[in-house]
Input
Amino acid sequence: MRKRLFQIAWGLCLVLLFLLAGTDWIIKEEKKPVYQVSVLLESTTTNGWTQFQQGMDLAARQYNLDVSYVTIFDAQEAEEQMTLLRREMDNGAEGIVLTTQNEWLLTHLVGEADSDVQVVSFGNQVDSPRLKATIQPNWSTVGRSLSASVISQQGTQKQIDFIYTKAHQVSTELVANRLEEIFTGAGMSFQRIRLNQTNEAQALMQGLAQEGGHVVITTELELLESCGQYGSADVPLYGLGWSDRVWQLLEQGNITGVVVTDGFTGGFQTGEWLYQLLSGQTIQEARKALPFVMVTKETLYQDQVAQLLFPIT
Amino acid sequence: MKKKWGILFVLFLGLAALWGAVSKSQGQVEQTNLKIGVITYKSNDTFVESIVTAMEQKARQMEQETGIRITLDLSSAQESQRTQNSQVERYLSLGYDVICVNLVDRTDANTVVDLATSAQVPVIFFNREPVKEDLTRSDAIYYVGTRAEETGRAQGELAAEAFLDGRIEDKNQDGILQYVMLEGEMGHQDAIIRTEESVQVLKESGIATQLLASAVGNWERSQGAALMEQWLNQQLPIELVLSNNDDMALGALDALQKADVTAPVIGIDGTEEGKEAVEDGGLLATVDCNGQAQGEAIFSLAAALAQGEAIPSQWEVEEDHYLWVSIDKMTDE
Amino acid sequence: MKQQWLTWWRGLYARITLRQLIWISFTLTSLLGVGLFGLTFYGRYSSQLQETIIEENKNLMEQVANTCSSYVHRMIKVSDSLYYTSIRRSDVDQAMLNASFQLLYDTNKDEIESIALFSIQGDLLASAPAATLRDGFEARQELWFRAALAQRENLLFSPLQVSNAFASQGGSYTWVVPMSRVVQLQTENGQQAGILLIQLRHSALQDIFSNVLLGEDAYVYLIDRNGTILYHPLQQLLASGKVQENNQEAASYGDGNWEEVFQGQKRDVLVKSIGYTGWKIVGVIPQNDISLTAIKSVLFAVFLGLFFLTALALFYSLISRRVTEPLLHLEAEVKELEEGKWDTQVAVEGFAEVRHLGSALNQLVQYIRRLLADIVQEHEAKRRSEILVLQNQINPHFLYNTLDIIVWMIENEKKTEAVRVVTALARFFRISLSKGKNIIRVREEVEHVRSYLTIQEMRYKNKFQYRFEVAEEALDLGVPKLVLQPLVENAIYHAMEFMDGDGEILVRGHVEGQTLVLAVEDNGCGMTPEVTQALLAGSIQSKKGSGVGVKNVQERLQMLFGKEYGLFIQSELDEGTVVEMRLPALSYEVLAKREGER
Output
């Protein structure tokens, strides 16, 4: 009787070992998990986000991410992002990158996110335990760099016009404040001009060109592109952001100088963070500074600048 | 004993039915989330851009109307077929529903076809046509575009009309139309056909033609400009500039403007800038290939395929694989 | 302690059956054999695997190096053929240059971004694809321009840069490796120098290097002779500083295998140089790559081992059972024999030795059975003769007859004869009984016969004479009782019948060496050999006799002493008969002890 029992036990043992070792039923072959991630862009197109996408794509390839870029329908309804966020999470998004420049909106978006969804942000930050990591340029330094460029290239006799359409944008406010600080400190006059729509740019630029002695600065990409149409030696244009159009305008001389942030690093880093968060690892540095360069037509193809503007993919 | 087996059998059936129901409902969940991948052959072809932009708009529209989440992912193959192949692989591995491919090398379509067929994912080729053999290899392969002969002929007709009613000046009064041809790409089917057909139509209209020079501009505006500059430097008696596409035509226009010379230029495509140039009087005429319509067609087809529904009746699929988009002629009249 | 263990071991060993022993030893030796084999094989195999992997990686590196090298050479050839077949021609013009540039560009479009010819002043003389210079572009300030001028005899490969010479196509950029050289141009102003620039697309390098599979986590990168990276799988991240690479140190490595430690990780580094350019291909293999351990593999090996062990054990169990079964049968049958079942037939089966044992056992058993039967027979015979002897000890007929004679004598007042006969009778019966003993002295046997003859003489008055001649030394030897008397009786009844007073019976005894010879001789009518035979066989029944008979004597003698002893009859018709009895000359004590009577 005992012998029988022993035999049965031994047989079962063998079967179990076989199942463990020879088949996939018990110890599964580790399949690399694919994490679904959404990037909420606060614009109606992905224009200007090419480098960010390139960086994010590299992260996606390395870390097995399924990335969706979500743009808003109506530029006037930035709050639409709340609905879109909800929709993304309902569709199974496990990680979210928030890019809104609106601090209030960012706070709400972060609050709206489900507890099991990882949230990181690019270009902006708020203090919230739900926001696990952020990468953004030091806006103050951006302002300083811009102003330095303007002063060195245009001199100190110019009138500085800071144009914007959207209020409550972090970059806008911080940069504008810094610019104001420096310019007024240098004895130059600085004013902020708010436009209601980007197509007002034409009229404004032409007007300023006629007046002469103005230098226009803007931190909004669309505005930069629109103004760029009408920029010239008469009204030097400086800005923040990078796109094909901006490149063209820079080459043509319509834009004099532009600050470009390292979108590739931003994209890659946010992607990597989401991977780390979703796979249970800890993040080393949760607050990172995004590198940027000041680009002019002359420096466009220099090594340091070219590497940032034209990522090798 | 029998009773026991009977009960077991019923239980088993019940479980099977339940499992079937569960998996089926999973399938239905898929329907609320469409993933469409688009790979262009390079990133700065204006006409292809217009197609893709139209696709994006249509996608947005559909999203708002139906509430279905649509992911339209765009990538560029940077003129490398290999890159395109690996991008197709990537989309397939991420579970995309339909892939739209703007082939880099139209003679090398079989990798894409193989990948898509084995993953049972429909593929829509557009704007750069693969050979028929590759298209007909499996059911779910389509091509959306314009018929090359149609566009070529249309350009020829525009030229013929213009020459006959004097808008194209016979500068040397020899009754022969001296022209230069900006060709799209070496060995590209559309380029070859457009080149041939437009001249053919001129011939058919009884106009004697003389080809002064032709060169390949790779569909690019800057190359068109450079070539035109060269020809101008050579003092060729150009009476007409024919271009396989609008970008090169605009490039030729750039060169002409730079040299302060005027000559009639006719393009094909009907890009935004092309049409603007026609309205401004820069381009004499162009053939509107309805990039907008193409984009909508591709997107509608893709959406229908992804959802397993029938193709909207406004688009007709010929020979099970071809969706031809009609063209329009555009002049400044 | 050791003693305890030893005793336990011995006890265990004694209890093991043959079957268990075979099974255990087979299994253990298989285990040992397989185990040793497996370990040595694994050891050799894993080291061979290491070597194979390294070899393969080296081959892969060679292949990649060859591909890269042939790519470089092809590009060099393009430059060469452009220079020597187009630019060098004396009647060159721009259209021709453009045409030949276009041709070579079109055939190498995948690898070449553009071909351009610059004058020494930096003007664009020809290009493919057709293009105009970018506004503000100064060729003379470019690195590739100056480097070419610095080394006029060579073809220069400059570091990676974004193609920046031509008016941009709006939105696309290409990273290229500029390949430049100084060329001699024929112009209206005579021979002048120019720079031929071929921009090699970085994507061509990507195609060559990005799919090299050196193993998981391994990768390949390309550096120029100064250590600047030309291709790296994470090139952009390197540029932005997110990751680091040990390329500066790798630039100092020669071709071959190296081990380095970078950022705390040990790596194997394979370096292969490309000729002419001074580029180096660096293959990096993190060292955790080459290992065979994965939990599943180990478990599988364990499973396989146990599985085979089980299979072997079962198999051996089967074998050992087959082998020992016949032995067990044999043993069982022996058990039966032990219990005295001598009828057991031993089955002859199994392998040779067992069969031999079986058949031998069978024979033995048969032999034993026969012996037993013999013993039984002998005992039976002995018993019978003893019974007869017992019977004969008191013979009624002889007694009645003798008593009759005594009565007659008494009635006829022959007192003295009567006393003699009674005394002789008493003596006769006393010795016949001999207090139950079966062995007596010869002396007593002689007395017995004398008594008998005394009586018989009375009955057969003067029919015969008798005398005794028994040697002195024979008298104290041992002899079975009632052996002489039947012979004398025989002689009287058969030989003396017809003698009428001339009959003589001699009873003699003497020792011949080791043999005691007792004989009864008579001069009677003798007997034929057939009668002799019949007598010894006992087929002649004497009605008048005392019943023991010659056969009985013969039987008893032979039973006690064997077939070489016993009765030997010599007879001649009408002459006489000698019945000789031969038996071993043993003293009475010895013989009596031998027969268990003392």
